[in-house]
Amino acid sequence: MAEAIRAAGEAGNHHFSHSDPSNLFEELAGVFAEYAEHGTGRTRHYVHDEVEAVQYGTPPGTFSTWEEFGPTPTFCSTRACTVPS
What we know:
The chain is built from four helices and four strands. It is an alpha+beta fold. The N and C termini lie far apart (42 Å).
C-alpha cells in the first residue's frame, strides 16, 4: 500500500488512500446504521504486513474477509456496569 500511495502521489493523486474504491463507503455507512440501531455489524481488517497476513489469512496490502460482531456484553462507567437489554 505504501508503494501505491507513493506512486499515486507522484502522479498527482494526494488522496489515494482515502478515495480508493476498496474503502466501500456505502457498506461502511450500513455498518454504522446497523450498529446504531442494534449494536451489531461487520468489520474487516487491512493487512499491513506478514504477521497480519498470517493472522487474517490474506496477503499484505489486502483486506481480510468480513467478520460479524455482536453487541458488547456490558457497558461500564466509573460507577457501574450494565448489560444491554
